[in-house]
């Protein structure tokens, strides 16, 4: 039986993958997350998921026995990719953009082995209430925004700002469970007692 490796340092991704009940090992990869010139948001998250998985595969002693899962989540508004905030000012700019509007959360996932790869891209619409400057400032001081794409966590205090979501909640948190299960099925991993046909 092949081994499953999660190439991610995100605690949310580890938690979400754990819920599928398949044994896996997590390892951290360090990759360049810069957007290429002219790259669309869809291509960007798809490429980064693949690069993370490939970087994970390259770290393994016995890659031939393994499948590596990589994932990338980005927030997109007006065609602009919002990554993680690098400062309070950067965070405020993001919140002002998201305030009172609907944006997209894109998550790319890639499952790679030495000879094969499967990929999926999931888009979810998330609507925010209109935010005041004091609200934005209070949220920054919670400490939650720093390690999250778009500067918010729907699963935490950031969920207070979300008025509507259309799509996959787990994808917004970092790993779309349905699509991940489909990819794992293609790689012949069996989920809990036939939960998902393979
Ligand atoms: C929008 C949103 C993002 N996020 C998180 C998911 C991802 O962890 C993070 C986006 O950054 P990513 O670069 O996708 O992931 P990461 O750096 O945390 O982990 P790794 O690359 O090692 O896998 O933002 C939430 O937790 N909740 C949310 O509502």
From TrEMBL:
Purpose of the protein: Nucleoside triphosphate pyrophosphatase that hydrolyzes dTTP and UTP. May have a dual role in cell division arrest and in preventing the incorporation of modified nucleotides into cellular nucleic acids.
EC top class named in words: hydrolase
Important for substrate specificity (site feature) positions: 12, 73, 155
The name this protein goes by in its record: dTTP/UTP pyrophosphatase
UniProt entry keywords in alphabetical sequence: Cytoplasm, Hydrolase, Nucleotide metabolism
Gene Ontology terms: cellular component: cytoplasm
Gene name of this polypeptide: maf
Catalyzed chemical reaction(s): dTTP + H2O = dTMP + diphosphate + H(+); UTP + H2O = UMP + diphosphate + H(+)
Active site: residue positions: 72
Hydrolase found in the keyword field: yes
Keyword Acetylation in record: no
CDD domains: Maf
Cofactor(s), by name: a divalent metal cation
Similarity-based family: Belongs to the Maf family. YhdE subfamily.
Main location per the UniProt record: cytoplasm
GO molecular function terms listed in the Swiss-Prot or TrEMBL record: dTTP diphosphatase activity; UTP diphosphatase activity
PANTHER family reported in the protein's UniProt record: BIFUNCTIONAL DTTP/UTP PYROPHOSPHATASE/METHYLTRANSFERASE PROTEIN-RELATED (PTHR43213), BIFUNCTIONAL DTTP_UTP PYROPHOSPHATASE_METHYLTRANSFERASE PROTEIN-RELATED (PTHR43213:SF5)
Record-level GO BP terms: nucleotide metabolic process
EC number: 3.6.1.9
Compartment(s) of residence: Cytoplasm
């Amino acid at each position: 039986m092949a081994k499953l490796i999660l190439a991610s340092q995100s605690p949310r991704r580890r938690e979400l993958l754990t819920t599928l009940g398949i044994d896996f090992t997590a390892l951290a990869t360090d990759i360049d997350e810069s957007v290429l010139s002219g790259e669309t948001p869809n291509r960007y998250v798809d490429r980064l998921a693949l690069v993370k998985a490939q970087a994970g595969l390259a770290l393994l002693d016995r890659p031939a026995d393994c499948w590596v899962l990589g994932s990338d989540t980005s927030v997109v508004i007006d065609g602009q990719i919002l990554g993680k905030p690098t400062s309070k000012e950067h965070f405020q700019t993001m919140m002002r953009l998201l305030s009172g509007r609907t944006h997209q959360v894109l998550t790319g996932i890639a499952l790679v082995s030495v000879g094969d790869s499967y990929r999926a891209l999931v888009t979810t619409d998330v609507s925010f209430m209109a935010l005041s400057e004091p609200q934005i400032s209070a949220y920054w001081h919670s400490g939650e925004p720093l390690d999250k794409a778009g500067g918010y966590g729907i699963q935490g205090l950031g969920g207070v700002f979300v008025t509507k979501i259309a799509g996959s909640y787990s994808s917004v948190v970092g790993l779309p469970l349905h699509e991940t299960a489909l990819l794992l099925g293609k790689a012949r991993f069996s989920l809990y007692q036939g939960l998902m046909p393979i």
